Amino acid sequence: MSGLLDNLYMILVIMAVHTTSSLFHNYFKGRFAEYALFDLRERTAKHIGKLSMPCIDKHHSGELISSLTNDIMVVQNFLQNNLGNILVEPMLFIISLFYLCSISWNLTLFSVSIAPILMFLVIKMSKPIERLTGEQQEFLSEVNTTAQDSISGLDVVKSFNLENTMEEKFSYRVDRAVSRGLEIALTQAILNPIGTIMGMSPFILTFLYGGYLVINGAFSFGNLISFIQVLNYVVNPLTSFPRLLSTLRSAVSALSRIFEIWELELEREDGNVFPRREDVPVISFKDVSFSYNTSGEVVSGLNLEVKNGETIGIVGPSGSGKSTIVKLILGFYNPTKGDIYLYGERLMDWKLDSARSLISLVSQDTYLFPESIYNNIAFGKKNATRDEVINASRLAGIHEFIESLPQGYDTFVGERGVRLSGGERQRIAIARAFLKDTPILILDEPTSSLDADSEKRIQESLEKLMAGRTTIVIAHRLSTVMMSDRIIVMNQGKIIDVGTHSELLERDSLYRQLYMNQINESKQEDVRR
Q1: What is the pLDDT of residues 474-523, one digit of tens each?
Q2: Structurally, how many domains does the chain consist of?
Q3: What is the pTM (predicted TM-score) of this model?
Q4: Per the domain annotation, does 124 fall within a domain?
């Protein structure tokens, strides 16, 4: 009787430990999972935001976003539903196994004798899950990429009747992801019965051998009942082992993809903050060459100085390297040869954020965030006041238009500013530049996508913006650079001519050829009208 009571007390102790541990582990599991997922998302998002431009060029944005969504969802499922079990159940398994051995070591060994064999099978059979999950996540990232391309290029898709083509491409990539998911499901379906066998076999073996011992008087019936009761805490981890191992392998695969992003090259954060010197050129290129890849140099042997307060126009045929100069000045890419200087100091020695704080950019492809007009302008200056935003809008010539809208400055512009015209988007970009109020201004073909009337109105705002600033104007339309102090003519990545508008026209130069071509195109357009 005393032995039965002792076993009952031990069972009660184990149940109390199990209940208490379950309470604490569920709370701390949830707490740990939420903090871990927050850190995972935050670190991944920050890392993506700090990636270098060459690195971003090699990865589609859909692929990067997939890691922030699909991969983290896989990890989330593991942390919230399975991590606690992996931590707690082995402890209960070991404690209960030791207790069973104290009751009868030979019955314990006989009961779980088949478990190691089944566990070995589970480990071997679950191994493909990690690879299959990795492939599935890769295919899901391709699905995201296709969907993003279809939405971003919706005007092209519709105008060229590419709906069926994009649908076929999307379906093909979805089918590949589904096929990997089905393979994972099949593997898990095979593993689940093994888990069931692992859960049932100890009880069957216990009833057979334990019953034999009781019948022969070698083991009491009370001890057998206690043994079976505690055996539950040994069997439960064995039953869930295939499922836990499967989710663990999936999580490991997803984490490996996330870690791959963490290992991508970041934009440099070193460097110094230098004062603006008046006795040196604002920007200097000294024998600068650059190539995006090994196919050839986009810019070759470039030597150029931009003086304080000077307006420089850069023109040339498409592919001559004009826009690449902008990317080099902003530090998006590093020269493969030579050096760029900002206020007399190597750009490589500057902290990039400090260097960029001195430069405003207005480009042909103005990006507006899917927020209000006010916020899109306010991005130009941290902690800008409302009066500063309105004043910048007035200078850009868009205040009256904004005020005419039903919601005024709180008007939502849509994704990439689709609810506004090209001219309106450009004026918001100009207002943003006015608000930033930097000594250096770069205009990268800001009117190339506008009609003649819009270009004229935008040009007036740009002239106000250029006043008192060192300005570099990248232009396809030569009318934009006619009043520049100097015009740099580029061809095939090299500077082939320098002069004022009148000086270049007097020479039999590429500039004169480009200018006459545009004059003729303008006359032909007038005739067609």
Answers
A1: 887 777 788 889 989 988 889 898 888 888 888 877 878 887 877 776 65
A2: 2
A3: 0.73
A4: yes
